[in-house]
């Protein structure tokens, strides 16, 4: 895959290899399930096989007698989880983020709900004992079918209570504009439930160091929030809870929350008084850690015959559980994306007897932009206009929703660079008009955007006596290469080689940082590392100034350069002063600073987004209806690129995810039981190497000077937003058939003659 | 997974003795399917008889007959010089299946016995006649996009099974009229490929006509003049590592534009690899022509029936038949 991909890289020599690449590929990296403990006990979850009802009995006698079994934990013998209190299970449609109470009252809310946990000496013994547990249920009628229940969708209760919620009904301009439009399209787009399915399944080791001291090794995307959550649920002082998550084999949003099974593992460790490990099997990954919700979107667009958008209405309805809300940005992008004066959006939520969804890469925007960008393609076709030209004619020069200037926007340059690299000009206007070797050829494109997120973050930077540097922050790396990017930032400022820098993350005892989500790590933590390193540099320059050597007596950082940990004054390029010597002179074992970085008033002065676009070529067999993506060009404007090599990998990952979303990913449920059928990789398809073609990754790479000190906006989400639409639009161009329900499979294309 | 006993037999006879006499004993070779089934609680053997070290690995040619040992790995067969030269169809089918890692473990004998991938079969929370006969078929009124359109029971009711055989290799072996050599307590016997797998009938729980304790020794292929014009066409949503939605194995003997012999088999459409005998007959003596191929596809579909989610196969299968014939005949 890598060999086929290219990117323009203006600073190839400054692109760092992954600082942890070697430990990862050699197996030396320790993932959550891999921490060794004496007397480690192993847990296996038993989950419900009904979608709604209650447990009438749990027969554990056989399991209890099975070899090696230490405990069978369920609501029947749960000694109590202090933070749950005596209140009932969250009332219907509790606000988002309300913890689902595991082993609480025997009520069943969804198929796959954890109902018991077997703990044994070995994993195999736990698996065996779990098969001996017999559970009886009283079954109630469940509702899991989205289409059948769609009329029951409502505005979420939390939105009803909050006038300032972005999910309130939104109208700008004049609704009449739709009626008067020259060209109109009206279509419904559906995305099915999709699951994250990172390579590494979720895993926990829970260790009670003392009655009131807990350490949890957990695959999660935010050690600080997990720490807070666990402290609250187990009523412990925050500082008595430690959460470690140093290496993560992908997460895509599935690790943002502390899930009920983590709580159960901590509880089990308390009961058996030993460290307990739980690793979710692949099957359980489909019901335990959230998913991208099934979403239906209706879009109506009116346009003038000159190709100006006159009105857009966008209604999105997403699914959630019966016990908790889940809101995502589905319809929000439509308000900001194009210069359209008349826009209405509606957002509704449908409660079903399923588990709660969660964020999945590009949450809401990947869903919403599939619909909006497909609809734009339909408008272009109705107007007989090039789809890219339509987008250019409706480019928003300022934010039409907030009436604010963009902090920076180079979308037009993205379109131009991408189109040129792709050869978009060779696209014929009519569908089904390009062929190659018996295949129907389609070119499709779509725009992408993602909001800017920056959270207060701290970083500690240290120069050690030997001149090496340590930078620390409780941030995470779910795969993008956080440590590598942070090392790059520190190396540039402190003038130290990468190999002499260590970046620590994934430990709740480190300085505060947000979890890794919403493409916020580089903007937030990157800024903190930048500020901390600048501050540390100034501090060491000040120390140098106080030394008898005259070269550094007037500390003006702009007059001083640093190379390989040695300061040089511009007045004397020959003679340097090393970090080692400075610390030695001052008799310091190390020099450290901790700094915080956060947003200021600029948040209200500018509208901050990343923008980009994707160009896709597909080949579709007119005989078998198989779709294969042959080429992708993506171009993103995410401000300054910190490290090209890892950035490019992140973009490729997003494209791969988008191809999966477009062509294969769907969690299929049998509604007679309210149970997923696709619970392995034989039935839930994600792309394999053979599905992934050459991917060209381009960046504008201009700092956005308004967002933060490093001018960088984060890349994780925008990489996937719009990809599914670009693929679907290419399939339309190839075949003349518009598939509005993902994924675009052979069965859907064969339905009609193509 | 339940605890089980592992046993390494001294020889073929001992292996067969044990599995013949102990009801819950099973042979294990590559384990690429059996271990999955054990993890899911679908197969619960008390004893696994490991046959991997038994002398059934050879691929040899004798008197015009190619014999492939049951323990030859899928990847070994696909790389074998004789197989490559004489049976390119087999190579194509093997390489279309599973992943490189699985092909390095999976054996030919095991591939013949691969169980269906019907999602209801794999989930013990659902009723399944194949898993346990007379419990009902959940696929019938469920999600059945991957299911059968041929070889169905006369009446579709709860006693039925509409699952398909998932193997790619089987489709090619069906087209090549392979013979399966087996050994049991009563000695060796030869089973024609068409008689090896079963239609569901009243015993959907049985995939094959093997008797308890019978062990596959190998597969024999005769050297027919069908190697020049053959093709395995597999349709799937994912470009690799996916079971066939539909597949076709075609082998033709063409002499100066006239078809002398034809073999045609489909995968992903029936409880067993599905030979199109009528179509084969129709091809013999005919010129290579698209209109003939279309007629073959038409008559092949006469006894097909579809369910709620697999009606698309009624359109897809004839396309696949024609396309595979065209490619095999060298006129795509």
Automatic annotation (TrEMBL), chain A:
GO terms for molecular function: xanthine dehydrogenase activity. Coiled coil: none annotated. Residues 26-141 form the Aldehyde oxidase/xanthine dehydrogenase a/b hammerhead domain. Keywords: Oxidoreductase. Its EC number is 1.17.1.4. The keyword Oxidoreductase applies. This is Xanthine dehydrogenase YagR molybdenum-binding subunit. It comes from Dyadobacter arcticus. The lineage of its organism: Bacteria, Pseudomonadati, Bacteroidota, Cytophagia, Cytophagales.
Automatic annotation (TrEMBL), chain B:
Its EC number is 1.17.1.4. It comes from the Bacteria. InterPro entries: CO_DH_flav_C, CO_DH_flav_C_dom_sf, Diverse_Substr_Oxidored, FAD-bd_PCMH, FAD-bd_PCMH-like_sf, FAD-bd_PCMH_sub1, FAD-bd_PCMH_sub2, Mopterin_DH_FAD-bd. GO terms for molecular function: xanthine dehydrogenase activity. Residues 1-226 form the FAD-binding PCMH-type domain. Pfam families: CO_deh_flav_C, FAD_binding_5. Keywords: FAD, Flavoprotein, Oxidoreductase. This is Xanthine dehydrogenase YagS FAD-binding subunit. The lineage of its organism: Bacteria, Pseudomonadati, Bacteroidota, Cytophagia, Cytophagales.
């Amino acid at each position: 895959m890598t060999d086929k991909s290219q990117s323009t890289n203006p600073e190839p020599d400054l692109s760092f290899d992954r600082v942890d690449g070697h430990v990862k590929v050699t197996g030396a990296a320790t993932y959550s399930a891999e921490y060794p403990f004496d007397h480690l006990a192993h847990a296996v979850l038993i989950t419900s096989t009904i979608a709604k009802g209650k447990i009438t009995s749990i027969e554990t006698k056989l399991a209890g007698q099975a070899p090696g079994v230490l405990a069978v934990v369920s609501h029947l013998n749960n000694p109590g989880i202090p933070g749950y209190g005596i209140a009932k299970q969250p009332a219907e449609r509790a606000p988002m983020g309300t913890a689902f109470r595991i082993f609480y009252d025997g009520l069943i809310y969804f198929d796959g709900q954890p109902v018991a946990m077997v703990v044994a000496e070995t994993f195999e013994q736990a698996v065996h004992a779990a098969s001996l547990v017999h559970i009886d249920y009283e079954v109630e009628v469940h509702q899991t079918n989205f289409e059948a229940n769609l009329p029951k969708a409502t505005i979420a209760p939390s939105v009803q209570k909050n006038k300032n919620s972005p999910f309130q009904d939104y109208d700008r301009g004049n609704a009449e504009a739709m009626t008067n439009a020259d060209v109109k399209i009206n279509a419904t787009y559906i995305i099915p439930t999709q699951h994250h399915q990172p390579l590494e399944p979720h895993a926990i080791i829970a260790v009670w160091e003392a009655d009131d001291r807990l350490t949890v090794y957990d695959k999660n995307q935010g050690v600080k929030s997990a720490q807070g959550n666990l402290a609250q649920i187990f009523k412990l002082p925050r500082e008595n809870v430690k959460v470690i998550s140093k290496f993560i084999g992908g997460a895509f949003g599935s690790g943002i929350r502390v899930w009920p099974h983590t709580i159960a593992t901590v509880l089990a460790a308390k009961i058996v008084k030993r460290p307990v490990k739980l690793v979710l099997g692949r099957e359980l990954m489909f019901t335990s850690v959230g998913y991208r919700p099934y979403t239906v979107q209706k879009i109506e667009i009116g346009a003038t015959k000159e190709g100006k958008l006159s009105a857009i209405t966008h209604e999105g309805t997403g699914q959630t559980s019966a016990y908790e809300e889940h809101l995502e940005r589905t319809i929000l992008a439509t308000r900001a994306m194009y210069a359209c004066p008349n826009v209405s959006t509606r957002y509704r939520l449908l409660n079903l007897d399923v588990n709660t969804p969660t964020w999945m890469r590009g949450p809401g925007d990947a869903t919403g932009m599939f619909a909006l960008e497909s609809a734009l393609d339909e408008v272009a076709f109705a107007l007989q206009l090039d789809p890219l030209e339509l987008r250019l004619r409706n480019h928003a020069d300022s934010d039409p929703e907030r009436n604010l200037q963009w902090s920076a926007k180079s979308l037009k340059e993205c379109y131009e660079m991408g189109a040129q690299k792709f050869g978009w000009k060779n696209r014929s206007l009519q569908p089904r008009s390009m062929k190659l070797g018996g295949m129907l050829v389609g070119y499709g494109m779509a725009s992408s955007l993602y909001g800017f997120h920056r959270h207060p973050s701290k970083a500690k930077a240290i120069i050690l006596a030997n001149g090496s540097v340590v930078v620390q922050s409780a941030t995470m790396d779910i795969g993008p290469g956080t440590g590598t990017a942070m090392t790059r930032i520190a190396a540039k400022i402190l003038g130290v080689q990468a190999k002499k820098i260590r970046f620590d993350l994934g430990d709740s005892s480190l300085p505060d940082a947000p979890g890794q989500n919403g493409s916020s790590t580089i903007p937030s933590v990157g800024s903190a590392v930048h500020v901390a390193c600048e501050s540390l540099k100034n501090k060491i320059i000040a120390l140098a100034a106080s030394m008898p050597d005259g070269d550094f007596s007037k500390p003006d950082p702009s007059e001083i350069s640093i190379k390989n940990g040695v300061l040089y004054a511009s007045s004397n390029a020959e003679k340097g002063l090393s970090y080692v010597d400075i610390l030695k002179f001052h008799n310091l074992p190390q020099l450290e600073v901790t700094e915080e970085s956060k947003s200021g008033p600029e948040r209200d002065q500018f509208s901050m987004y990343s923008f980009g676009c994707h160009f896709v070529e597909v080949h579709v067999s007119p005989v078998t209806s198989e779709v294969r993506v042959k080429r992708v060009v993506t171009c993103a404007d995410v401000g300054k690129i910190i490290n090209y090599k890892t950035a490019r990998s992140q973009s490729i990952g997003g494209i791969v995810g988008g191809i999966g979303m477009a062509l294969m990913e769907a969690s299929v449920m049998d509604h007679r039981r309210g149970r997923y059928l696709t619970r392995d990789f034989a039935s839930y398809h994600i792309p394999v190497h053979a599905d992934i073609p050459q991917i060209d990754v381009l960046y504008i790479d201009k700092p956005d000077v308004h967002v933060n000190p490093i001018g960088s906006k984060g890349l994780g989400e925008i990489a996937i937003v719009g990809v599914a639409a670009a693929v679907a639009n290419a399939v339309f161009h190839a075949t003349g058939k518009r598939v509005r329900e993902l994924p675009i499979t052979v069965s859907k294309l064969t339905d009609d003659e193509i | 997974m339940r605890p089980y006993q592992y046993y390494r037999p001294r020889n073929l006879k001992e292996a067969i003795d044990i599995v013949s006499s102990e009801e819950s004993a099973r042979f294990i070779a590559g384990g690429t399917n059996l271990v999955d089934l054990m993890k899911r609680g679908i197969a619960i053997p008390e004893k696994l008889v490991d046959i991997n070290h038994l002398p059934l690995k050879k691929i040899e040619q004798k008197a015009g007959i190619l014999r492939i040992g049951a323990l030859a790995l899928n990847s070994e067969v696909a790389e074998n010089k004789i197989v490559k030269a004489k049976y390119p169809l087999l190579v194509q089918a093997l390489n279309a299946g599973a992943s490189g890692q699985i092909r390095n473990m999976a054996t030919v004998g095991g591939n013949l016995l691969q169980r269906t991938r019907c999602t209801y079969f794999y989930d013990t929370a659902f009723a399944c006649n194949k898993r346990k006969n007379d419990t009902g078929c959940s696929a019938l009124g469920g999600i059945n996009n991957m299911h059968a359109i041929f070889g169905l029971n006369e009446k579709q009711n709860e006693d039925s099974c509409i699952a398909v055989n998932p193997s790619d290799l089987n489709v090619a072996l069906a087209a090549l009229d392979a013979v399966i050599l087996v050994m049991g307590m009563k000695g060796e016997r030869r089973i024609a490929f068409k008689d090896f797998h079963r239609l569901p009938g009243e015993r959907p729980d049985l995939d094959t006509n093997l008797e308890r304790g019978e062990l596959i020794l190998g597969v024999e292929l005769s050297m027919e003049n069908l190697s020049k014009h053959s093709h395995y066409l597999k349709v799937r949503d994912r470009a690799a590592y996916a079971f066939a939605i539909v597949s076709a194995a075609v082998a033709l003997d063409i002499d100066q534009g006239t078809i002398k012999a034809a073999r045609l088999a489909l995968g992903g459409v029936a409880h067993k690899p599905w030979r199109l005998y009528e179509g084969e007959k129709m091809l013999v003596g005919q010129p290579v022509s698209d209109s003939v191929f279309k007629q073959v596809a038409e008559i092949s579909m006469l006894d097909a029936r579809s369910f709620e989610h697999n009606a698309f196969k009624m359109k897809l299968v004839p396309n696949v038949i024609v396309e595979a014939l065209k490619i095999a005949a060298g006129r795509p």
